Amino acid sequence: MSNTQECNSRNVPLPIQREIRQRCGFGCVICGMPLYEYEHMEEWAIVQRHVADEITLLCDQHHREKTAGLLPKDAVHKANSEPYNLKSGVSKPYNLHFSGKQAEMVIGGNGFTCEDKGYGTIMVPISVDGVPLIGFLLADGHLLLNLVIFDEFNVPVLHIKNNQLFYSVSPWDIQLIGTNLTFREAHRKILIEIEFQPPDKVVINRGRFLKNGVEILVRPTNILITNNSTLLSDCHAHNCHGGLIIGYHEKPIGGFMAIPNLPRYLGDRSEALRFEKESLERIEANKAMQPTAEGGGCFAIALDRLRSRSAYQGQ
Ligand SMILES: [Zn+2]
Q1: What is the pLDDT at residue 4?
Q2: pLDDT of residue 290
Q3: How far is the CA of 145 from the centre of ligand 1 (A)?
């Protein structure tokens, strides 16, 4: 069913935009590029209305070609009927421009930084069962971002492989606006929200990392593992290869927090969410009393600042 709205503004209303994005596979219908504009296939001056079926997605290049008359209207209609990204179900790879000899990630307010040590340095803030879910590889002056997001059925839906971003077109909504990528599995349900800050920084303030029954929630000020109510807040790791290393890893990654055995597929998350709320209130209340730890070993700082269920109950 197509959304229709008559109005005198050229701005396409948001619900209609989303319907168009879904129909077009979240990319330019000609080339699949995730950076695009909403293009009225008939001249706006004539139609003066927003009908989802009459609007398509074109990247800057193809929009210019259409405006210049180099791209015939019929070709746009044809591509609109069989959008590039829907042919394979996966978007065309888009190259992110990361580079340099150092890297920084901020995940739920926790900081991970590292420098290129000259032998293929890796920094993996989150890894589950031998699968790095997010990390940077620093090699020969290249800085390569890697990320994989799984849905609840353990199916990978968003990939960044060595700076190449591509995604499944089946989730509910995907948008790359400016430097912000938002990936939703349903209305208001964010799988991940990433801010790319090239050349060398990535910030994740909201996210849901899922893999083999492990659920890691990222909020603006903390990371919560719901399986065992473990909360990380304000941790800082520098030159640690690994951050949160969960499950069995054939090639061990040294990191500041390893949890080899974690209960999986917990149906009831209410206890973990209650624990998160209580812990955050407690951290907030204790903030004035905590010494500021800067520098030194990340392991000690991480443990010092870590709030886990056992630590919390022991206090
Ligand atoms: Zn294009």
Answers
A1: 61
A2: 53
A3: 24
